[in-house]
Amino acid sequence: MVLDFKKYQTYVQILKEELVPATGCTEPIALSYCASKARDILQVKPKRCLVEVSGNIIKNVKSVVVPNTNGLKGIEAAVAAGIVAGDANKALEVIANIKDEEIFKIKEYLSNHFIEVKPLESEHILDIKITLYGDDEYVLVRIVDQHTNIVLIEKNNKILFSKEDKKYNDNIVTNRHELNIADIYEFSKKVEITDIKEIIKRQIDYNSAIAREGLDKNYGANIGSVLLKTGNDVVTRAKALAAAGSDARMSGCELPVVINSGSGNQGMTVSLPIIEYARELDVSDDGLYRALVLANLIAIHQKTGIGRLSAYCGAVSAGCAAGCGIAYLYGGDYKCIAHTIVNSLAITSGIICDGAKSSCAAKIAASVDAGILGYQMYLEGQEFKDGDGIVVKGVENTIKNVARLGKIGMKETDKEIIKIMTDC
C-alpha cells in the first residue's frame, strides 16, 4: 500500500492539531479560556457573569481540581481563574502561569462577584456560553465542539465574530474521517521522523514528567502507586505510569500534558505504556516515535466517530491504541494491530465516563490492561470473532460499531449520569 502525498500531509497535520499541550483537565480549562477571552474584549473586570454549559461540561468539571487555584473545584472556580489571571493567547495553557498573589485574588473574586451557572440545552455535546457584564455593557463568547473553537463573540448587541453552524469546526483543518487502520499502519512505517519528532518528543517529555510526579507525591487515590505495590513487571509499570499521570492531573497538578482527542487522560493513556515498554525493550528513539505515531492516530480514529465527549470512557480507545503501539514495538504487522484492536475493544467498551476525577486513573489502568491483553490474545492465536456481541468481521466495522455505541447508544446513559451527578 502506498500513501499519496496528500494523505501523508493530512496525517502529519492531524498529529499537529491533536497533540497539543494543556495545563489542567481540558473542560475546566476551556471555561477558563472562554472567560479570559470575554474579559479581554470587555476590557474591564466584570461585576457579574452568566455561564451556560452543556451537560457534559457540568459532568467533567464538577469533581476535578482546577490547576493553580490551591485546590478549587467546579465551574465557578474555572471561570474565575480565567477572568482574574487567564492569558487567552495561551489557549489550553490559559492558566498555566498564575502567580501566588493571583490565587488569593481568584478566591476574593469568587467571594465578591456573582457567577451564575445554568444548564444549556444544546445539540452540541461540548457547548459553552459565557457572558460577562460591566456597568452598562456586556460581552458574550461561545465555544462549540472543540475546546478552543470560538464560534461567536458578541458585545453590546453587536456581533464581532461569528461562524455559521456548518463552519463550527473551521479551526480543525483536516478531515479525521480519512483515517483508517491500514493507512495508519503504513504511515507509521514510512513517516519521516523529522516531520513528527518535535510533536512526539514533547509528548514523551511532558507526559513522562507528570507520571513521575504522580508516583512521587500524594495525588487522588494514588492508583499508580497502588499498582506498583502489586509487582514491578513491565505490564504493571505500564499501567501504573499512565494511572499516575492521571492521579496528578485530576488532582490539580500544574504540569502540562500533551493531549489526544481533546483529553489529557487519553494523551497519557496512549503514550506512557508505550514509552515504558520501549525502555524495557531498549527500542531506538526512531522505533518509539513510530509506535507513538501509530497509537496516537489509532486513538484519534476511534474517537472521531464517538466525539470529544460522551458517556463512553475515552480511556478505552486510548488503552486499546496503547496496546497497538506495544504490539508495534514487538514487530507486530497490520494483521496483529487489527486483531489487537478488536480484542481489546470487546473487553472494555462498557466503561462509562462519569466525569473527570480520581477514579479516571483506575479506568485508565483497566483500559491499558485490556489493550495489552488484546495483543497477548493475538500472540496465542486467540480472538473474538464476528458475531461475538458488538464484534463484527473487519476492524473498521468493529470500530464503527463502537462509535455507534458511544455516540448514539449511550446518549440516554449520558443523560442519566448527569442527572445522578447533579442530584447529589
Automatic annotation (TrEMBL):
<dbReference type="Pfam" id="PF03313">
    <property type="entry name" value="SDH_alpha"/>
</dbReference>
<dbReference type="InterPro" id="IPR005130">
    <property type="entry name" value="Ser_deHydtase-like_asu"/>
</dbReference>
<dbReference type="GO" id="GO:0080146">
    <property type="term" value="F:L-cysteine desulfhydrase activity"/>
</dbReference>
<dbReference type="InterPro" id="IPR021144">
    <property type="entry name" value="UPF0597"/>
</dbReference>
<feature type="domain" description="Serine dehydratase-like alpha subunit">
    <location>
        <begin position="157"/>
        <end position="418"/>
    </location>
</feature>
<protein>
    <recommendedName>
        <fullName>UPF0597 protein SAMN04489758_11212</fullName>
    </recommendedName>
</protein>
<dbReference type="GO" id="GO:0019450">
    <property type="term" value="P:L-cysteine catabolic process to pyruvate"/>
</dbReference>
<comment type="similarity">
    <text>Belongs to the UPF0597 family.</text>
</comment>
